[in-house]
From TrEMBL:
Superkingdom of the organism of origin: Bacteria
Database matches in InterPro entries: Cof, HAD-like_sf, HAD-SF_hydro_IIB, HAD_sf
Pfam hit, one: Hydrolase_3
Protein name as catalogued: HAD family phosphatase
Amino acid sequence: MGTFDGYLLVSDMDGTLLNSKGKLSEENKNAIEYFVDNGGEFTLATGRMLPSIRRHIQKMKVTLPVIMYNGTKVYDFNNDKVIWEKFLEEDRKEIIKVVKEVSPNVGIEIYSDEVVYIYQSCKRTERFNKLGYDVIYDIDDSIWNKKWTKALIVGEKEELDFVETYLRENYGDKDIVRSSDVYLEIIPKGISKGQALKELVIYKGLEEFKIISVGDNMNDVELLEEAHYGFCIANGSEELKKKSKYIAPSNDDNPIEFIVKWIGQLKEDLI
């Protein structure tokens, strides 16, 4: 039996697994490899889209399907197939019209079938220019007939603070996710990384596994709640730290390496 048999480790990517430069450290990479080689299961839970994840996933040992779009899709990269997926409800698509009206300076992006449609542009929507993704800037009314994975509102912190408050007051709390200071996401009702993790556990028959998760922001709160041991990193949001029983080092100080060592110690203490 391997040291980590029966353990599942799930990590957020941006601001957690990846350092401040958006890179995977050798220490975290080696820790994942050690964990997997000794019986553990490892996967990611991220807000990213498929091509964005694919750029990184080849550098690490991911053994299970990945939770994408903050829980809207679960994708098996090893077999290139969708395991589970939800789409934004038709009536909730209208929210972006409201956002455009109340905040004309933010960017609004629609994600559908791994293509990004720019509904309203701003400086931050220009970030795709260097990345080579499928991005369409000139959109027409056919966008309303497509299945949307999510809508993403991008802008400066103060702008998004205003939009977030406005939408929470008018459209409820759970289904509008602040994934960073500059990103506000509209996702399907009842969807979260934690809900997607439940689906993944059932799909893979991992109900008996001990789950360890780690994140840095409020889009990770359900992911941490769904785990037996949920970690927030030291430089994560204060709000998430308040809800977390366990704290890992910052994303620049190899939190995955720390957690893998912590799991090893936990197992020793349980013997």
